[in-house]
Amino acid sequence: MSLTRRQVTVAAIAAVPVAFSATGTAQAREQRTLYIAGDSTAAQKYADAAPETGWGMALPFFLHKDRRVANHAVNGRSSKSFVDEGRLDVILGAIRPGDFLLIQFAHNDEKTADPARYTEPWTTYQDYLRLYIDGARARGARPVLATSVERRKFDASGNAVPTHGDYPAAMRALATEEGVALLDIQALSLALWQKLGVEETKRYFNWTATEQDNTHFNPPGAIAVARLVARELLRHRVLAPRDVCRLDAEIPESWITWPSPATA
Q1: Mind listing the pLDDT tens digit for each residue in 142-163?
Q2: Dihedral angle at the C-alpha atoms of 160, 101, 50, 190, nearest 10 degrees?
């Protein structure tokens, strides 16, 4: 669905961290914010979608309060459509020196039949990712690439199967070329699904009485993936030990909440 610039702006306002709206610009600039640009696997979900949960909703549980999260990830977007709809412009208009831009796309870049979203891994996908990297750097912020979290897919022998084709490899190569920190969430999540197995992984995805969704998460799955992201942010020294918390702690599912649907 095509969105007007006004709709994009309204959606962006909903993603602004509380500190920006509650404490004013001067104080907000003293805090370092982690912006998320991504798709439905990371996005904020609302009450009409519960129990579906994006991992970006759980990431703040693993960060100290002075490391805010501004989750701009949106269902159905690719690296291309996110740019074409003006969503990257919104982030770049708000991001400040010392902030971070965490970039996760591939699920929708893979849709070959949809020219509005499709990108080719080794050409246009990398070209669009460079727009995020260059845009963040031009504003004194640090870009961080994250390979896309894996879907739940197993072969007949019970082995977790990768589903993202060449996109993770293309992102890894770009990260090396551009000197950008890479969180290899694709490899880490695939290993986690393998460890959990065919049946146990159902508890992490949005499996309900009426739906068997092997792409999107429920609260336990979102928390598990957010934990992987936080650990990788620490391991790659994007964040310091003082920036993270609860990496090994049990996070209650009740901490996940779904606000009323956003209006545009």
Answers
A1: 999 999 999 999 999 999 999 9
A2: 10
